[in-house]
Specification:
The structure holds 3 protein chains of 3 kinds. Chain A is an alpha+beta fold. In chain A, a hairpin with a 2-residue loop joins β8 and β9. Chain A is globular, with a radius of gyration of 25 Å. Chain B is α/β, with parallel strands linked by helices. Chain B has 13 helices and 8 strands. In chain B, α4 crosses α9. By secondary structure, chain C is α/β, with parallel strands linked by helices. Chain C is built from 6 helices and 11 strands. Classes of the chains: A alpha+beta, B alpha/beta, C alpha/beta. Chains in contact: A-B, A-C, B-C. Chains A and C meet through β1, α2, α4, α5 and β2 of A and β1, α2, β2, β3 and β4 of C.
């Protein structure tokens, strides 16, 4: 350690490792590009090919009208892409988002963090082995956060009065996204007075919209062979034809859980009812014990651990005792939770 | 001694051997085991076996082989050359354990200490001689530390052979002396011609004896420490001398098996278990299982 | 945003200099199974790269006397990897003059731009390198298909499904 501090020049600025939507995405311009539209035309973006290209107007491509390009460039060249802090609609806390004002696309930033990782990047070391992902995000989730808040006033309002945030003033950038008005139909009632639009949050419409989100997420879970069951499985042993009708509910619940990461808690609960999901087993005060793995009883695959996560299972030692609530639950037969019941039942038998 | 195979890749272990003399297939043989370079913080450890028919033991004795430590480098070279001349009845084999192999074994998740590594290597060489058809009837082994357990283990391993493990066997039994000469010659040569895996800037060839208490060796270690990588693979990272220089001179490194008790339970989770308090909404299990979370700072 | 002025981080914008994305040259990246508690230059090319060995079924190298086994991870083709660094405040100030020039030229074109996207207190980030693959190392064992980071790499395709616009009724 000491050596590092001794030589002042030994240290360097923090390096961020990012994965951005790549050039394939840009070509389609389906809102996944991250670069200036004028420049994206006909030019691949990977470093090597373009490294020799000089800066400035010489980048103009013969296909694009020069006047448009210059106008575009002077305005947007330095400000097309920006990271800002906005509200996380799930937690209500701040989170980083990326705006592409040229492609008019919002991106969410997720970070891969695992303990005990570092990067070697060329001839340097970066202590935290984080990997940042920028993925296109539906801005409606963010606007929805403000709409539900504004709904308490129960009236139609212009959007620029709804999307207001003292803590995260950059939220006004959302209003610059061009398709937003069209999207708002999914979640609001709308009135137009003197060619100005006024919106009011509609829970019914929102739930229908969210149901569609759940459905398309479910489809993707199946295509991507995401293990939605309770059993911790090795990716190497995940077979394609495991999907049975029995597991359909696992998929709905899992997709609901994912969508819930983008909406407030109340809306998540409403969506759960709307989807007719059985009471989630997360109402248990405490997650099950890790010791189940050592049990003689076979662990069934149908258990739902949606709200039990791997961290819980790892940090379990403290919670091996059954609470009164768990014991009570063990006696109640809830449909869709049978294996959970038997699982606690088996444990309590051993205890008694 | 031809160590070119070692020089091609010195990151693991390397076995070298003489051809088996024909007579050793037919006549009962005595086999000695010894090692060189156990203590140094630098370079490989070499295990060697040397064997000859019981009937020719007097001839081996006549070479005046002795404990390699009592011989000068040139005397060892000379004796090794003589053994080569007697290749019609003297055979040998060695196992060169690279410093990298020693470091990674001793520092592994499952610690493989130097004694076990040594014992297994010695047994491996005896087995190698047997596999090559050497008719081994007696084995003499030099040992540091407690010979009884070691002898018991080897005897169990080779029930048909009479095993003698003794401290200072290299001075007592000519085959062990011969083995010690083979080992020492190989170790010296390997160190002298060490092919550094790393591209080192102004490499200092004078690292002294390689023993931790040699000031030259210590100075060399301090000169060649890198704040991130520590030492070149030539150094045994598992030696205390190396470790304590790293602690002072290099950046800290933590591994998932670095033992720190309080690494286990992050605070956020503890609060999650508290049923009374407000429960924060944890990210969906999809994200938790993949180590993903929303970025909150850049 | 780790610079200590936490409060301001809610307000400022970090502009990614677009030209740097195009100019980023490929870099070599290794994701290690340990944390080196430093951000600093390191002679990777002299110590680490030449020590990598191709063994059956895995790459092998050692670091600080421990064995690492690894494999190459190819970034999904729909993604592009970049290494980015935040500009120092001094660099931002240097770029400020240029920015104001370009803003000045805007005034004439008659379009209303009440609030510029860039403000004086904003910060800047730039890409310093690109990558399409990296080496993933495990402590003694190959990370393999169950490595968390492999799972993380599936996120963009699922994110696309979650965030794509829903079909109209």
């Amino acid at each position: 350690m000491a050596a590092g501090e001794d030589c002042g020049d030994g240290h360097q600025a923090r390096q961020y490792v990012f994965l951005l939507p790549g050039k394939h995405g840009r070509r389609v311009e389906a809102g996944v590009g991250v670069v200036h539209r004028a420049r994206a035309q006909g030019t691949a973006l990977s470093g090597g090919e373009r490294a020799e290209q000089p800066e400035g107007p010489r980048l103009w491509q013969p296909g694009a009208p020069p006047s448009d390009y210059l106008k575009d460039a002077s305005k947007k060249m330095e400000s097309g892409l920006m990271f800002v802090k906005l509200v996380n609609p799930c937690s209500g806390e701040g989170a980083i988002y990326l705006f592409d004002m040229c492609l008019q696309q919002l991106f969410e930033i997720k970070v891969f963090k695992e303990k005990h990782h570092s990067w070697f990047i060329n001839q340097s070391v970066q202590s935290e082995g984080h990997l940042h992902f920028a993925t296109p995000m539906d801005p409606l989730f963010l606007v929805l956060h403000y709409l539900t808040k504004a709904d308490k006033e129960g009236k139609f309002q212009p959007l620029d009065q709804v999307v207001v945030d003292d803590l995260f003033p950059n939220c006004i950038l959302l209003l610059k996204l061009p398709d937003l008005e069209k999207l708002l139909r999914h979640v609001t009632e709308e009135k137009e007075i003197d060619s100005k639009k006024y919106y009011k949050y509609s829970k019914e419409k929102t739930l229908k919209w969210l149901e569609k989100k759940v459905n398309q997420t479910m489809a993707a879970l199946k295509i991507n062979k995401i293990n939605v069951g309770a059993r911790v499985q090795s990716a190497a042993f995940c077979s394609a034809d495991q999907v049975s009708s029995d597991e359909e509910e696992d998929y709905i619940r899992y997709a609901h859980g994912l969508i819930s990461d983008y909406i407030p808690k109340e809306l998540s609960d409403d969506l759960s009812k709307h989807l007719k999901l059985p009471e989630p087993p997360a109402s248990l005060p405490k997650p099950p014990s890790k010791k189940i793995k050592l049990s003689d009883e076979p662990v069934e695959a149908k258990e739902d651990y949606t709200k039990f996560n791997t961290k819980d299972l790892k940090t379990e030692k403290k919670n091996s005792k059954m609470t009164a609530a768990q014991k009570a639950l063990a006696k109640v037969d809830k449909s869709g939770m049978k294996s959970i019941d038997s699982f606690f039942g088996a444990k309590s038998k051993k205890k008694i | 001694m031809d160590l070119s195979e070692l020089e091609r890749d010195n990151t693991g272990r390397c076995r070298l051997s003489s051809p088996v003399p024909a007579v050793c297939h037919k006549e009962p043989c005595v086999l000695g085991v010894d090692e060189a370079g156990r203590g140094p913080v630098l370079g490989p450890m070499v295990y060697a076996i040397c064997y000859c028919p019981l009937s020719r033991l007097a001839k081996l004795k006549a070479l005046k082989v002795a404990d390699s430590k009592t011989l000068s480098e040139s005397e060892r070279e000379r004796l090794f050359a003589k053994m080569k001349e007697d290749r019609d009845f003297v055979g040998w084999a060695l196992d060169v354990l690279s410093p990298n192999l020693i470091s990674t074994s001793m520092l592994g998740r499952v610690k493989y200490n130097l004694n076990s590594l040594s014992h297994d290597t010695a047994a491996g060489l005896v087995q190698y001689a047997l596999d090559q058809g050497v008719k081994v009837t007696q084995v003499f082994v030099d040992t540091v530390g407690m010979p009884e357990k070691y002898q018991e283990r080897l005897q169990q391993h080779f029930p048909g052979i009479e095993v003698t493990v003794k401290a200072k066997a290299d001075a007592l039994y000519p085959v062990v002396s011969a083995a010690s000469i083979c080992a020492k010659v190989a170790r010296d040569q390997a160190v002298k011609n060490w092919q550094f895996v790393e591209t080192l800037q102004d490499l200092d060839a004078d690292y002294g004896s390689g023993y931790p208490n040699d000031p030259k060796t210590k100075a060399w270690l301090k000169k060649h420490v890198d704040p991130v990588f520590g030492f070149p693979q030539f150094v045994r990272f598992s030696w205390r001398t190396a470790q304590s220089i790293l602690e002072k001179e290099a950046e800290g490194v933590t591994w998932e098996d670095s033992s720190t008790e309080d690494q286990e339970v992050p605070k956020r989770i503890t609060s999650y278990f508290c049923p009374e308090g407000p429960r924060p909404r944890l990210p969906h299990r999809y994200f938790q299982e993949r180590g993903l979370e929303s970025a909150t700072t850049l | 945003m780790d610079s200590g002025d936490e409060e301001a981080s809610e307000k400022y914008r970090i502009h990614l200099r677009p030209a740097t994305l195009r100019d980023a040259v490929p870099a070599t990246l290794h994701l290690l199974p340990c944390e080196v508690l430093a951000d600093r230059p390191a002679p990777v090319g002299r110590f680490f790269t030449p020590a990598i060995r191709q063994r059956p079924g895995a790459l092998e190298v050692s670091f600080r006397g421990r064995i690492l086994r690894g494999e190459e991870v190819v970034v999904p083709p729909s993604l592009a990897g970049y290494v980015m660094v935040m500009d120092e405040k001094a660099e931002v100030l240097a770029g400020l003059g240029k920015k104001q020039e370009s803003r000045g030229s805007e005034k004439g074109d008659g379009e209303e731009e009440p609030q510029p996207l860039e403000r004086d207190f904003d910060r800047f980030i730039r890409a310093t390198a690109s990558f399409a693959r990296f080496h993933l190392w495990g402590l003694e064992t190959v990370p393999g298909p169950d490595a968390k980071v492999r799972g993380a790499l599936t996120w963009p395709s699922l994110a696309a499904a979650i965030h794509t616009q829903v079909p109209e009724d």
